[in-house]
Amino acid sequence: MPKLTIDGREVTVEDGVNVIQAAERLGIEVPHYCYHPGLSISGNCRMCLVEIEKMPKLQIACNTKVAEGMVVYTRTPKVKAAQEAVLEFLLINHPIDCPICDQAGECKLQDYYMDYGAYKSRFPLEAKVRKRKVVDLGPHVVLDQERCILCARCTRFLDEVTKTSELGIFSRGDRCYIDLFPGKRLENPYSANVVDVCPVGALTHKDFRFKARVWYLEKTQSICTRCANGCNIDIYHRRGEMFRFRPRYNPHVNQYWMCDEGRLWYKALQQESRLTRPLLRGAQGFTAVTWDQAVNWVIEAITQAQATTTSGESAVAGIVGAKATNEEAYLCLRLLTSSCGTELVAGLSWSPPQAFADDFLIKADKNPNTRGLQALGLLNGKVAVTHILDAAEKGTIQVLVVFAADLVTALGREAVEKALGNVKVIVLDTDYSGTTEYADIVLPIGTVAETDGTYTNYAGRVQRVRQAFPPPGEAKTGWEALSLLHAKLGGASYLSAAEVFAELAQTVPVFAGLTYGKLGNHGVPLASLLPEEVRGAASA
Amino acid sequence: MAERVLLRHLDVPDIHKLDVYLAHGGYAAARKALTTLTPEQVTEQVKASNLRGRGGAGFVAGMKWGFLPKDSPKPVYLCCNADESEPGTFKDRAIIEWNTHILLEGILITAYAIKCHTAYIYIRGEFAFGARRLHEAIAEAYKAGFLGKNIFGTGFDLDVYVHRGAGAYICGEETGLIESLEGKRAYPRIKPPFPATYGLFGCPTIVNNVETLACVPSIIANGPEWFKSIGPEGSPGPKIYCVSGHVEKPGLYELPMGMPLRTVIYDYAGGIRGGKKLKAVMPGGSSFPVLTPDEIDVHMDFDSMRKINAFLGTAGIIVMDEDTCMVRALEIIDRFYHHESCGQCSPCREGTGWLHKLLLRLEEGNGRPEDIDLMDRIAGNMMGNTVCVLADAAAMPTQSFLSKFRDEFVAHVTLGRCPLKKNGTGHRQAA
Description:
The complex is a heterodimer.
Chain A: E1 3-6, E2 9-12, H1 19-25, E3 49-52, E4 59-60, E5 71-73, H2 77-92, H3 108-117, E6 135-136, E7 141-143, H4 153-161, E8 167-170, E9 177-180, H5 193-197, E10 203-205, E11 218-223, E12 232-238, E13 241-247, H6 260-263, E14 279-282, E15 285-288, H7 291-308, E16 316-321, H8 326-339, E17 345-348, H9 370-375, H10 385-394, E18 399-403, H11 407-411, H12 413-420, E19 424-429, E20 441-444, E21 453-456, E22 461-465, H13 478-488, H14 497-507, H15 516-519, E23 524-525, H16 532-539
Parallel strand pairs in A: 1-5, 16-17, 16-18, 18-19, 19-20
Antiparallel strand pairs in A: 1-2, 3-4, 3-5, 6-7, 7-10, 8-9, 11-12, 12-13, 14-15, 14-20, 21-22, 22-23
Chain B: H1 18-23, H2 28-36, H3 39-49, H4 61-66, E1 77-82, H5 91-98, H6 100-113, E2 118-123, H7 128-144, E3 148-151, E4 156-164, H8 174-181, E5 205-209, H9 210-222, H10 224-228, E6 238-245, E7 251-256, E8 259-260, H11 261-268, E9 278-282, E10 299-300, H12 302-307, E11 316-321, H13 326-340, H14 346-363, H15 370-382, H16 390-404, H17 406-415, H18 427-430
Parallel strand pairs in B: 1-2, 1-5, 2-4, 6-11
Antiparallel strand pairs in B: 3-4, 6-7, 8-10, 9-11
């Protein structure tokens, strides 16, 4: 653990850490373009030059490993002059097109120019080297060669992370440009990460281009729900509309990256099919009702079913989809078992057969919370979804609660139609689906972007999502809707998802001791706490 | 010096042929090294000779070999840097084309010393004739048992491959050369690690210049003391001086290290062409500061040159007479670096182009007074701040031209044309 001094302040860091990282620990920013913690050291931009005692020349901080007793200066006149010079070099051939550049607002050239440059231009506009603009690289990414500062982050990402090497640097000197190798297209499943690593506006995402100025967007920490991997993301949104997902660093899950499919998953969460009002089926189809009317209808259906049951068997059953958060699944379970007195609750984790998966981030399980449902005992085989549907068909149950699950996609229309004809179907979901067609009442709930909660990823890591904006229209978050029903049936009512999670942690042993505070930004693994049979089932 | 070593073909015709080379004592040094000395003893002798790298940096060759890790399980590679592309430099080419076997013998002895069994000769792509000569000589050497398996019956194996470059100056930078040899873009590597620990294919590697390796057989044959007796002790040995430009007899001169620059120009190269006056000399290729006529009494060796803030470099002596326009000369030099910058580091990629554009503008007669200081600032900002020294190689001549011939640059601005041309060459004048 070497101890070094940076700008007069001491810091002790692990061996192998570079000076940029060590400075970061002290809150000192060493400006840089080519350095990226997830990629190899290239050392080409020369922006991170710092002064180190006993070294005659300025050193690049990215390639300087800390050493005991090292004395670093990041703000001396010599360093500042070098930073200003590098910026000037980077900008002489850079187009002045910030007003039409999508990177504006999150561009390191802009940022550092304001922080370290701010000189008068000594280079005539007409002398700039011209290169190709709007180069189509693949389904997601567009290149502007003039804006490129040749930091080689994109080429290193494609060489080192995806190992697909679609892009290369061609020509020499100030004629250098990034381009596709002949015959290649940038279409690997992780291609859009090059847009994130690009520190300038050279690589932009076709989907996000010209959609919004980044300074108008809010950013909320969340988890991608496209598959069971649980990649950490930031949701960029404004007034209840999402504009993009970007990966957020989590060393245990996705490092700095996410897949292209997950990146565009936000679109699936804000489609025309969203449910925005409680709907009650009448003779003429659905009519919108108030939450009070809807809740009363549900309570009445449940009480009636309980009253008329004769055989001692449960008249109420529930199916919870693996896109529910831990909190939603727990509350659903609680509602059905303690308030409705039924044991007939099953989890449903369905993925399309032969769903794409790889050995990096993309999992074949396309549900974000299969492991969470397992941990809650919802997928342990005691109660199968087919068993519930059989019971419904036989008429032994009268009310079926379906939470965030589409039975039609998972089991086929025929099976569902036979089963659901005889029961009252209560659906809580975000969108119209095959199942809502069979619903007697639909309660609209919020998506991952609209709720607080947690998911347990494929590896058993419990990770938080945060509400970016409230659910649309009259929809409520899943835990709120369930809390409402729960309270009406004489149970507790909850003020927040955190409260639900606290109770969950108290009652479900594998979650014992966890709180939102402890989960932090990177989550906490559950795996070691899970009993062997659950772990076995998850990996099977 | 009694007999030429490096340019021996001038004394012995056809010495590039193996039978002629053998008839004049060829491969005796290699046989001596491999059969009577241990690799360590060979390294010791080369270190004792104080042979300094002839590629321009002047690093002690034996010391460089000593940096190889002692107990690495990886193979050791030797790369002969034959990518000679420094403007004004054409010494390696002569050795390759006309004294081919001395280079191969040097490679053999060096490979033995550093326990290397695969050596590459990275030759500049334009040297097609040299590459052919190398292929012929290598074939002869294999046939004679000087390359291949069990050389001289010692059990030592060595394979030598010729790799032709594709026309980039940067491939002469040793780590750029390694990258290129690996089939990649010749972006110089950040150092450390140095090639001795992490070089070709990630293995310990020694990169030596042609002329350096060609010196090795004579050290083994005659002993390090003999080598040290030639020229100054600090940087001894025979040296090829390449004289080009406005002299009566341009060409190659093999002389002891440390000859006064004046002697080389006036006594050997016949003085300035047409009895004109000397205006400027670039003594070490185009990559180092220019010298004025009052600086040419300097001795041409690594240490003496440093004392006057100059560099021996490759000893590519470019002589310019009184009719030379220094703005035009610098424009040509900076055009070269603009063309050859690999583009990896921002200061060099952008700085070389910027300098060249400013010089072109000055040449055209459209220069602004502030451009002269601006060029000096740009060069200063490039210097020392990049992965390799190409930026320095462009900055040093630029700064020295600007400071030593400032009046001429100012005159270009004020007159809007070259003061040496009566009619003016500026586009503005012509129009």
